[in-house]
Give the backbone structure.
Amino acid sequence: MSEQDTLARRFEEHRPHLRAVAYRMLGSLSESEDAVQEAWLKLSRSDAGAVENLGGWLTTVVGRVCLDMLRSRTSRREDPLYDREGYVRLPDPVVTGIAGLDPEHEALVADSVGIALLVVLDALAPAERLAFVLHDLFAVPFDEIAPLLGRTAASTRQLASRARRRVQDAAPTPDGDLVRTREVVDAFLTASRGGDLDALVDLLDPGIVARSDGGAPRPGAVRRGAAQVASQAITFARFAAAAHPVLVNGLPGVLAMADGKPLSVMAFTVEDGKVVALDILTDPERLARIDLEAVLGD
């Protein structure tokens, strides 16, 4: 085996971890793959023999690549929830079958990295996001993160602390009981199909936030409050009628189908038995990337 083949094998051992770092940084599956590939190119052009901790070195390289990508993205839009055309932009969901996560996806969504949390991470400044993700989610020391930002370790610690407070204040904590969460999701679908507004309102947290992302063809929206979200759910009962149970970022969710094609992915965040966040992707371009055979087992 050549030296380059050995290096490629060692890199592949770290790929799941690197994809997980990039996904938390970018919220985009395709951009995450691009960032990981860029890390490989940098490694293949470097003196790998001089790298003592390859995993740590690659983590910081991916972090730097993602930071540059975030800064480029931020320069094109002012509101993190909206793209440059003014459409609601949700992070990419990781959709898998109800049997459970396979090893390829497990690292991507470990530690309850749901869509609602990724939305909050998207609202952070790029430097805050890097400091929080690398330190709080992957235990990278501040003195290793600081050079990526051109800051001191103390300043980087402050960035992570500020980001942590924002995440704790804004990101709901999903219930760990997946069976109970599935029961809430099923009850939501039943009430939507039946047009039972009262039952829907009872399932929703009063402060629920519902976000929909239809991509460029179908601009999305943000709705707040149980009454408004319940009314909208009844309006779009067709999604509930065509629902298939799936896992969305490891949590019970719904994939709606019609004529063999996906209509939407619904990600539910359930806290204390109430739906506190509902994120709906109807963007046909991104829905087309879902591996339906793997998800539905057909």
